[in-house]
Write a structure and sequence with these properties.
The protein is α+β, with helices and mostly antiparallel strands. The chain contains 4 helices and 9 strands. The model has no long low-confidence stretch (mean pLDDT 90).
Length: 221
């Protein structure tokens, strides 16, 4: 039985995106291009099962890289789990947050009018059961992406930037990417949860003729 699907292409687009650079700390500054982990998150929003894991092959940039600067209000504190548990045990407690006291104004450097094509496939995992097969999940993904179905609305880095998506059949012509080649520097690849403490993974990203090739990247923690 095959343990790997054929390649898929998914066109995604939206008004804004923010793929936050972790080195910028509290300020929301986006990478110039969508990260592999953000692309995988979009695919998982359409089809996620314990039996499969998505792998990103390539990201094509369809629109020129444009920026937009904004300021927005955020809440700078959260209710701790211990406080919530105590309130549940006692049947009473203060679980509210005063927005006026916890408000923080932060700057954000976002991408605007974005569009990409995600090239990806999925692999079967050890959690796949005897009734699971590559063909089954291939047909599920095609059907769901063509019908606009998703478990939750996919987003470009932040939930306030929703993604519109469109399945591209295998026999459809190639979607033209922008004519831009440049080094993007170190970019977040994914988060490794196999260790005791989750560790971010990075790779050196290069845009070639508008495409970010992820097939043979060297990942570093």
């Amino acid at each position: 039985m095959s343990v790997r699907s054929g390649p898929f292409r998914l066109r995604v687009y939206g008004d804004n995106a923010c793929f936050t650079r972790p080195e910028m700390k509290v300020e929301r500054v986006s990478y110039e291009v969508m990260t592999p982990s953000a692309a995988r998150g979009i695919l998982e929003a359409i089809l996620w099962k314990p039996a499969i894991r998505w792998e990103i092959l390539q990201i094509d940039v369809l629109k020129p890289i444009r920026w937009e600067s904004i300021r927005r209000n955020e809440v700078g504190s959260i209710i701790s789990a211990q406080t919530a548990q105590t309130a549940m045990k006692r049947g009473r407690g203060s679980l509210g947050i005063c927005i006026e006291d916890a408000r923080q104004q932060r700057a954000g450097l976002l991408l605007r009018d974005v569009g990409y094509v995600i090239h990806a496939y999925f692999e079967m995992t050890k959690k796949a059961g005897p009734e699971d097969s590559v063909t089954k999940f291939e047909q599920m993904f095609i059907r769901r992406s063509q019908n606009g179905q998703c478990y939750h609305r996919p987003y470009f880095g932040c939930r306030e930037f929703p993604v519109h998506f469109e399945f591209i059949p295998q026999n459809a012509p190639t979607v033209r990417s922008i004519d831009l080649s440049k080094d993007l520097g170190w970019m977040l690849y994914d988060i490794d949860y196999s260790r005791e403490e989750p560790m971010p993974q990075f790779f050196y990203a290069r845009l070639q003729a508008g495409s970010l090739n992820l097939r043979e990247v060297e990942v570093r923690s």
